[in-house]
Design brief:
The structure holds 2 protein chains of 2 kinds. In chain A, 51% of the residues lie in helices and 10% in strands. Chain A is mostly helical. In chain A, strands 3-4-5 form a 3-stranded antiparallel β-sheet. A two-stranded antiparallel ribbon of chain A has the order 2-6. The termini of chain B are far apart. In chain B, helix 5 (134-151) packs parallel to helix 6 and helix 9 packs parallel to helix 10.
């Protein structure tokens, strides 16, 4: 193995594992202990990655408190260092980590709060696209309309949770009162970003099914059938108008 | 009457932004929290610099804000994630993301670090030091050749701030950087705070280092604040923290360099505990006054010549 590759192997494996000794061959101005010097790199990495998690999961941080979050993030960072050089992509496995993090066992909604915060970030950075103007649908005869497939906006995301994760996330991001939220209420949401601001709205389970079918490239007619199967009173035109106004789609084909 | 400029803008692949010349003035690192103040004001900032990786998302607010800034100011693209010092080949996907940012925003300068940050698919999000050996030199030269070939332009290489040195090194940092520049034709980004931090950490004279630095190749200067701690031996240990104003000693070294080089585009970096725009701007204006003084004396010198 070339010497530099071997040296950087040693160096990098000690970076995230404080139990490992400082690599040999490093020196300061005097050839004595370099532990504190090497720990500057260890600290830079750990603190900057914790900072990235703090920025990506503000609601989780508010829920668990700054100190708890920072200690928990340190555990995560050491076990799951980033594979991507883009920090906005870092932490896709943070929700799963929270789900298995024993000290949070009494807060089963926490992983889902993290999951919707992660979706928010994905939507925030997604590609720009002009939302579909609902007026074009008015010109179509019903048969053509029901056969149409809808192209989702790149930022559109669907979310569902057996907990009130959407309300908990929103309240903790805005600093609103959380005492009125019943955490055990299942919730469904749609995330869109018609221009620059991410929009999260609560939707019903039948609207979720309807959108899930449309995003999965089912024709409108099939999507309506799926929604009606869950809710015989599903109102097609109100739902379609609502999701188009939110910017969930860019075109039909 | 023909209007070549507007014709050019009408072509599908014509420039999206005006070509604003880079003057030897002071600039500032672009922070999202300052964008509104920058766009509302008429501050005479010479240029803005971005970390390329912050604009590698597909769209949304970051790109909208950057496009608005780029329409009015020259831009410098500063990469922090290419890992030019790595033993492994450059990451082709990351390099093409960098090329996309450069193609999209048409910056006046593109720079990266003499450092590594990725090893075996783990990204360490820090600028890690390299040993100064022939083997690493060959790696770095090959990587810079690849970057310059891919981007189709010259890149600037920044001198590092380091906390440890390698016993394996067989040459000095200055010899290493000079040789890299000679073999690749890259320009240099001289970070004077890095020189000061490293000089304290490795006990050398920053003045001597700067006097021997290949100043003719410097196209940009970086200034930033640093923190002070002590190491295991009780010796002074400076940290390149970018979280406070530029230190007096670093301003003095800056004047010394500008005296030798004449005015150069100079960036104030402030990445942690970011203050309000007024504070960062006043740091940039302090650098600008030093540059302006030397522009004046250079002009005066010419008149007398």
């Amino acid at each position: 193995m070339p010497e530099w590759h071997a040296i950087s192997n040693d160096f990098s494996s000690a970076l995230l594992d404080p139990a490992r000794p400082v690599p040999v061959g490093l020196k300061g101005p005097s050839p004595f202990k370099v532990d504190k010097r090497f720990s500057v790199y260890r600290n830079n990495i750990t603190l900057s990655l914790i900072g990235a998690l703090e920025a990506n999961f503000p609601a989780v941080r508010r829920l668990v408190g700054e100190e708890f979050f920072s200690a928990m993030a340190k555990v995560f960072v050491r076990a799951h260092p980033p594979g991507s050089r883009l920090l906005c992509e870092y932490s896709s496995d943070f929700p799963a980590f929270l789900a298995g993090f024993e000290p949070l066992a009494r807060y089963p909604y926490m992983a889902d709060v993290a999951r919707i915060e992660r979706l928010w970030l994905d939507a925030y950075h997604e590609a720009d696209a002009e939302p579909l103007n609902g007026a074009v649908l008015g010109a179509l005869d019903p048969e053509t309309l029901f056969a149409a497939r809808f192209i989702p906006h790149p930022a559109t995301r669907l979310f569902r949770s057996p907990f009130a994760a959407v309300s908990i996330m929103s309240a903790n991001r805005t600093g609103a009162d959380t005492s009125v939220i019943d955490p055990s209420m299942p919730e469904f949401a749609m995330l869109t970003r018609p221009r620059l601001a991410v929009d999260i709205r609560h939707i019903s389970s039948s609207t979720f099914d309807f959108l899930d079918a449309l995003i999965g490239a089912s024709p409108l007619g099939e999507a309506v059938e799926r929604a009606l199967a869950g809710d015989p009173d599903f109102d097609v035109s109100t739902n379609l108008r609502g999701v188009l106004a939110a910017g969930a789609f860019t075109a039909i084909k | 009457m023909t209007h070549p400029r507007s014709l050019q803008n009408d072509t599908p692949h014509g420039p999206a932004f005006p070509a604003i010349p880079l003057l030897p003035r002071a600039g500032a690192g672009l922070k999202p929290e300052h964008i509104d103040a920058i766009l509302c004001g008429t501050d005479p900032v010479g240029f803005f610099e971005i970390h390329a990786e912050n604009y590698m998302g597909k769209g949304g607010s970051p790109h909208a804000a950057l496009a608005a800034v780029r329409a009015r100011f020259p831009l410098s693209v500063h990469g922090v994630g290419l890992s030019i010092g790595s033993a492994s080949p450059l990451d082709a996907a990351h390099l093409s993301r960098l090329k996309a940012v450069v193609d999209r925003y048409e910056p006046v300068l593109v720079s990266e670090h003499l450092a590594w940050s990725t090893h075996d698919d783990t990204y360490y999000n820090d600028l890690l030091p390299v040993p100064y050996t022939r083997e690493v030199l060959d790696c770095v030269v090959e990587h810079i050749d690849t970057v310059q070939m891919t981007l189709g332009r010259q890149m600037l290489l920044e001198n590092p701030s380091t906390y440890v040195a390698f016993e394996q090194s067989t040459m000095s940092e200055l010899e290493f950087i000079t040789e890299v520049a000679k073999r690749t034709g890259c320009g240099l980004l001289l970070d004077i705070n890095n020189v000061f931090v490293s000089s304290a950490n490795h006990n050398f004279s920053p003045e001597t280092y700067l006097d021997r630095f290949p100043l003719a190749l410097v196209r940009e200067i970086h200034l930033a604040g640093h923190a002070e701690e002590t190491d295991d031996e009780g010796a002074r240990l400076l940290i390149d923290a970018h979280d406070r104003p530029v230190a007096g000693a670093v301003w003095a070294l800056f004047e010394r360099v500008i005296e030798a080089t004449g005015p150069l585009p100079t960036l104030i970096e402030w990445d942690n505990d970011v203050p309000g725009w007024d504070v960062l701007k006043s740091e940039a204006m302090a650098a600008d006054r030093i540059l302006a003084h030397h522009i004046a004396s250079t002009l005066l010198g010419r008149r007398h010549a």
